[in-house]
Amino acid sequence: MDFKRSYVGYRTDKIKHELWLKSRKSNETYITQYDEYILENLQAGNTGIFENAGYFLEDCIDNLKVIEQDEIVKTFYPKATIVKTRDQIGDLFPDYFDNFIVQKNPSDRWVDERGLCKYINEYKKAMKNGCLFFYSMRDTQFSPWNRLKINHYEMFIGLAKKIESLGFKCLESQMDFANGDGNENPDTTNGNIKYLFRCIK
Amino acid sequence: MKKKNKVIEQRNLYKWHKSWNRLQKSFFTEEYELYEKIKIENFVREHGFKKIFHIKDNYIDFNFRTVSNIKEADLVIITDQKFSRATCKKIIDNINDLLDQCPNLFLCLNRHYLNITGTEIDKSLPDDYEQAIHAWLEKSLGVPVENYSEKFIDDGRYFTWVIPDQKFYIRKK
């Protein structure tokens, strides 16, 4: 695939790349409301951000490690760490992060509870004891589950409990669903399901 | 680190998909057609429908004649994603309204949007989600519903956001 096509594909999935493009030639940094929430809640130390064009936060967070899976990121953000698989995050940064951010990660989509827990277990290897873990997703990209039979709030509270069983404490959660007027769920940019966990090791 | 002033971007960065099909096509070097598009065209041809009223929100050019007035149509086809994002009750009301205007309806629903508010739960439906969608439609509409959906676990690679995945042929009694 040529560069242009790869770049269009990357940008289609990584919508926050647009914020970086807008910020890098500006005296201001463009972020979303949810990013502001994360910035307000970060603790001191090392912060990792995986797979959501996290370089858009480079002017807002000290000691930020941007970790991506697509090699193309290196062409415009050479400081990024590229991993092929999630397990390499823990290999490269064992027990390293005080904060770890995964916002509506395109490569975390289309898994069930078990699949997502497997991914989160990989992220956990890079977290210190007490690390804050910010995780957000969209309920419409979680699969497969019976949306007509399972109460959505119970579904995602249940998911938080599963994640807790991996060695986390859920500190906060926010679940916002559409009102049925034909529009998408709220916050398609960051995901309408948001969790804040503390890692316990 | 010298911090810049932060500006909260109020705009939704997520861009809707009117040209999603074209964008997807641009990633393929070879010519192709969507299987689901051909399937709907075959359905129309095999059932002898001649005047189709197509409710859509993205660019799909089916190879059949469409009409701009539903009153002239012998079949209504819905591929509009918004249709699936109404409440379950509203979806049923909308189907009934359309059936009042045209007795044949080919409905494409996006399974990932159904029960978008998260609150319209029916515990009596089958555990299998795809079966549950079919059962919900038959129960709510009170008419037989023919299921034309493929059975598969969606992982985002099936163009569901071009043509919604759950397909049903519904006829007015």
What report would you give on this structure?
The complex is a heterodimer of chains A (201) and B (173). Chain A is α/β, with parallel strands linked by helices. Helices cover 31% and strands 24% of the residues of chain A. In chain A, strands 4-3-2-5-6-8-7 form a seven-stranded mixed β-sheet, with helices on one face. The longest helix of chain A has 13 residues, at 152-164. Chain A is globular. The mean pLDDT of chain A is 95. With 173 residues, chain B is an alpha/beta fold. Chain B has a domain at 51-171. Chain B is 29% helix and 16% strand. Chain B is globular and about 65 Å long. The relative contact order of chain B is 0.17. The model of chain B has no long low-confidence stretch (mean pLDDT 91). The chains are: A alpha/beta (201), B alpha/beta (173). At the A-B interface, helix 1, helix 2, strand 1 and helix 3 of A face strand 1 and helix 5 of B.
Query: Judging from the principal axes of the Cα atoms, what is the shape of chain A?
Result: globular
pLDDT < 50 stretches of chain A: none
| Main sheet record of chain B | 5 strands, mixed
| Strand order in the sheet with the most strands of chain A | 4-3-2-5-6-8-7
Overall pLDDT confidence of chain B:
91
Radius of gyration of chain B: 18 Å
Q: How many helices of chain B does DSSP assign?
A: 5
Order of helices and strands of chain B: EHHEEHHEHEE
Features:
heterodimer; A: 201 residues; alpha/beta; Rossmann fold; 7-stranded mixed β-sheet; 7 helices; globular; B: 173 residues; 5 helices
Write the layout of secondary structure elements.
The complex is a heterodimer of chains A (201) and B (173).
Chain A: H1 3-13, H2 17-24, E1 28-31, H3 33-41, E2 47-50, E3 64-68, H4 73-76, E4 81-82, H5 87-92, E5 97-103, H6 113-124, E6 127-137, H7 152-164, E7 168-175, E8 193-199
Parallel strand pairs in A: 2-3, 2-5, 3-4, 5-6
Antiparallel strand pairs in A: 6-8, 7-8
Chain B: E1 5-8, H1 20-26, H2 35-47, E2 52-55, E3 75-78, H3 81-84, H4 88-101, E4 104-109, H5 129-141, E5 145-147, E6 166-171
Parallel strand pairs in B: 2-3, 3-4
Antiparallel strand pairs in B: 4-6, 5-6
